[in-house]
Design brief:
Domain 3-hydroxyacyl-CoA dehydrogenase C-terminal: 186-264
Largest sheet: 8 strands, mixed
Keywords: Oxidoreductase
InterPro entries: 3-OHacyl-CoA_DH (IPR022694), 3-OHacyl-CoA_DH_NAD-bd (IPR006176), 3HC_DH_C (IPR006108), 6-PGluconate_DH-like_C_sf (IPR008927), 6PGD_dom2 (IPR013328), NAD(P)-bd_dom_sf (IPR036291)
Helix content: 40-55%
Number of strands: 8
Shape: globular
Domain 3-hydroxyacyl-CoA dehydrogenase NAD binding: 5-183
Structural class: alpha/beta
Pfam family, one: 3HCDH_N
Strand content: 5-15%
CATH superfamily of the largest domain: NAD(P)-binding Rossmann-like Domain
Number of domains: 2
Number of helices: 15
């Protein structure tokens, strides 16, 4: 099956970014939102994106005009019936998504694919509310979706191999790098990104450092382009908190920290405090341990579960999250004894069994 027309439901940050990317890549895009003004705003945002690309020499004027012409706002879900693929990009709420998929089941063509852009929910659980679950999958884009190269391609229990192959070809045709993942809470990248941000909040709660200091340590030890609090402000603490809460079935280690709950429920950004002078070595080491624990333990557990290969975790960390080094490569560099020292406090505090993958540290990344 060749995909030429894509319907997108949800014109927020992610939906608008996906639409912008796909129209630029040559796909016909139909954008639906319960609030038509949101869809119209997304269309205007795409025009601005293309105009800036022309100014910077990344697109020609004719290409920008053609991309804009491929974007259209529709009045409702029924107008998505001709689409070869429909991508859901509404708020990360299970019940909201379920209601949408039940509606789409009676609208989309029998041979069309339907994908969820969920960041943490299991595809299999959502697929139970589709009339043709074999044609349902996860396509998890990363912000900003218009330019971020990574898309996690997630196969649910009922998803057919043909659906996955079609989706992989579609991602490549749109200029994205597909990262295949097993269906698991958080998939590959959010499986460790969410705990990493949560451990940053726990370090703040424990008084180990200020937001600015914790961000600075993250940039140093992970080579991150931006620290966790800066990134959370970009994606919104409310959204990040919701994603963390969706990891609850994985156990108490994944429960949100106090300040994460406070900022998320108040829907307010974290105040990033300037770093005055240096950070004491001992305190800096404790902060680093917290951040690395948030990355390492979830990745080791996910490797045990077969969620993805080590190379996928590392590639996603570098390309989607802009880390200077991936978690598996960093664990190999540090060695088993040091990684065990870092994760041991969490194993003890939360009664977690030692991951089998810990024994492979030193050769995880090949």
């Amino acid at each position: 099956m060749r995909i030429t027309t894509v319907g997108i439901v949800g014109a927020g940050t992610m939906g608008s970014g996906i639409a912008t990317n796909l129209a630029q890549a040559g796909f016909m895009v139909r954008l639906a939102d319960a609030r038509r003004e949101a869809a119209e705003k997304a269309l205007a945002g795409a025009r601005t994106f293309y105009a800036r690309a022309v100014e910077k020499g990344r697109m020609g004027p004719a290409a920008a005009e053609a991309a804009t012409a491929r974007l259209a706002v529709v009045d409702g879900l029924a107008d998505l019936a001709p689409a070869d693929l429909v991508i859901e990009a509404v708020f990360e709420d299970f019940d909201l998504k379920v209601r949408l998929f039940e509606q789409l089941s009676s609208i989309v063509r029998a041979d069309a694919l339907v994908a969820t852009n969920t960041s943490c929910l299991r595809v299999t659980d959502l697929a139970r509310h589709m009339s043709r679950p074999e044609r349902f999958l996860g396509l998890h884009y990363f912000s900003p979706a218009a330019v971020n190269p990574i898309v996690e391609v997630v196969k649910g229990e009922a998803t057919s191999d043909a659906t996955i192959e079609t989706a992989l070809a579609f991602c490549r045709a749109s200029g994205k790098e597909p990262l295949r993942c097993k269906d698991s809470f958080g998939f590959a990248i959010n499986r460790f990104f969410c705990p990493y941000t949560n451990e940053a909040a726990r370090a703040l709660d424990a008084g180990l450092g200020t937001t600015g200091e914790i961000d600075a340590v993250a940039k140093e030890v992970l080579g991150a382009a931006a620290g966790p609090f800066t990134v959370m402000n970009l994606i919104k603490p409310r959204i990040n908190l919701h994603a963390i809460r969706n990891l609850a079935p994985l156990g108490p280690f994944y429960a949100p920290a106090r300040t994460m709950i406070e900022a998320g429920e108040a829907d307010r950004p974290f105040e990033i405090t300037p770093v005055a002078g240096g950070i004491e070595p001992a305190r800096k080491a404790e902060i680093a341990d917290c951040l690395l624990r948030g990355c390492f333990l979830p990745v080791l557990q996910a490797l045990d579960e077969g969620v993805a290969e080590p190379a996928a975790f590392d590639h996603g960390a570098k390309e989607a999250l802009k880390f200077g080094i991936g978690p598996c490569a960093l664990m190999d560099r540090l060695g088993r004894a040091e990684v065990e020292r870092i994760v041991r406090p969490a194993l003890s505090a939360y009664g977690i069994a030692e991951p089998d993958a810990l024994a492979r540290v030193g050769s995880l990344a090949g």
